[in-house]
Write a structure and sequence with these properties.
The complex is a heterodimer of chains A (147) and B (250).
Chain A: H1 9-32, E1 37-38, E2 43-44, E3 47-52, E4 56-62, E5 72-77, E6 80-92, E7 104-113, E8 124-128, E9 131-137
Parallel strand pairs in A: 2-7
Antiparallel strand pairs in A: 1-2, 3-4, 4-9, 5-6, 6-7, 8-9
Chain B: E1 6-10, E2 19-23, H1 30-41, E3 45-52, E4 60-62, E5 65-67, E6 70-75, E7 78-83, H2 92-105, E8 110-118, E9 130-134, H3 137-145, E10 149-150, H4 159-170, E11 174-181, H5 188-201, H6 209-213, H7 215-221, H8 223-235
Classes of the chains: A alpha+beta (147), B alpha/beta (250).
Chain lengths: 147, 250
């Protein structure tokens, strides 16, 4: 007769974490399975990154060939911003070394989710060496006093 | 060929005593961009490819003809290993082991691995620093003689980490050159810095001016490969390189 071992809380936690990791991997892979360009809106999706520190959220985007004056950063929701920028010269697939596709691109466009609450009105942005950097102060919540 | 095997299929004979330069996808695609530039500038010829079922079912089409994504190019006494795709994190161990076994059998003289060291404020850096690591003391001496700062203590994650590890096991002289770079943006400027260091160390003369001038084109073209590489870097816990190693008693 087989003895059925009871699973400990640690086994259950480990299984739960593994399940979350698998779901996250699947979600990332699904997001990857779309092109980084859109011929209809003539836009390229730039590479973006989000860094969260103790008091700031820093969003960066790689915008090569972007016209600095055309860069727009628009808050869509409290936790989502949209970055758009015109490209200085039109780019077509042939410029990217691809001859079997048709279409040209005139702008960058992406939406970046913000992982923690920020003060959008206090945001600052700069464009250095083709990299856009937006710094948001983090929203301050209730502070717990140490007795 | 059995499932999971990694083989190097040669179109041409390899002379003994070659130097091989590895530029596999990693942070900032520093190695990939550098390898592609060296192949193009020295007009190297494709001489071998990596055959394995550990990679996704992808071929590269060139003039309508299929090419395998990981290939070796050769000319002027050097060979360059380059990959057109992000290597899946779970294939890195067997792929690198297979390549280094082949390198050992071919009696390759030295291996140079070109890559990057991620720094969070890369876009603010006026001057990119270059760091090095090696498979033995003689190669560390070569790095020092060429004014490359040695990484005294720290973690290395990814293909270049395994190349060094297997080169130590096989007693193959190997040098890793790492330029400060972005974690997830293609960085042709950092590639130009590693090529300049390679020029000094390996007595080569690869012009990098075009790479710097056409930097924006390179960044646009490499976006998709960077996106795929970033997903694999996260799976192999690349951020471990930022970690401070534990307490060490001398």
């Amino acid at each position: 007769m087989s003895v059925r071992r009871r699973r400990s809380i640690f086994d259950l936690l480990r299984e739960y974490v593994e399940e979350i990791e698998t779901l996250t991997d699947e979600m990332v892979e699904r997001l990857m399975e779309k092109p980084s360009w859109d011929v209809r809106s003539q836009s390229l999706e730039p590479l973006c990154d989000v860094y969260v520190s103790r008091d700031k959220v820093i969003v960066t985007a790689d915008l090569p060939k972007a016209d600095p004056k055309s860069i727009r950063i628009s808050p869509i929701r409290d936790d989502l911003i949209e970055i758009t920028a015109d490209i200085r010269v039109k780019i077509n697939f042939e410029d990217l070394g691809v001859s079997h596709r048709r279409g040209e691109f005139t702008c960058f466009c992406c939406r970046v989710p913000l992982p923690v609450p920020v003060e959008v009105s206090g945001a600052k942005a700069r464009f250095v060496r083709g990299i856009l950097e937006i710094t948001f102060p983090r929203k301050k919540g209730y502070e717990i006093k140490v007795e | 060929m059995f499932s999971g095997e990694v083989k190097v299929i040669e179109h041409k004979d390899f002379p003994e005593g070659l130097k091989i330069i590895c530029g596999l996808p990693d942070v900032g695609l520093v190695g990939s961009i550098a390898a592609a530039h060296i192949i193009s500038k020295l007009n190297l010829e494709e001489v071998a490819y990596i055959e394995t079922d550990l990679l996704p079912p992808i071929i590269m089409l060139e003039n309508g003809l299929p090419r395998t994504p990981i290939r070796i190019f050769m000319g002027d006494g050097i060979a360059v290993l380059n990959s057109e795709i992000a290597i899946p994190s779970d294939a890195i161990y067997p792929v690198v082991r297979g390549i280094i076994n082949w390198v050992w059998k071919k009696k390759i003289d030295k291996i140079f691995t070109l890559s990057g060291l991620p720094v969070p404020n890369r876009h603010e850096l006026e001057k990119i620093r270059i760091f090095g690591a090696a498979s033995n003391d003689a190669m560390i001496k070569v790095l020092k003689e060429n004014e490359v700062e040695i990484i005294e203590r720290g973690f290395l994650v990814g293909p270049q980490a395994l190349i060094l590890k297997y080169c130590v096991e096989r007693n193959i002289p190997a040098i890793t050159l790492l330029a400060e770079t972005f974690y997830n943006y293609p960085d042709p400027e950092a590639s130009s810095v590693v090529i300049q260091a390679l020029n000094r160390i390996a007595n080569m003369n690869v012009d990098v001016s075009e790479l710097v001038e056409k930097g924006e084109e390179v960044r646009l073209t490499m976006r998709d490969m960077m996106r795929r590489t970033q997903a694999e870097l996260a799976k192999m816990r690349k951020s471990h390189e930022y970690d401070v190693p534990g307490f060490y008693i001398r």
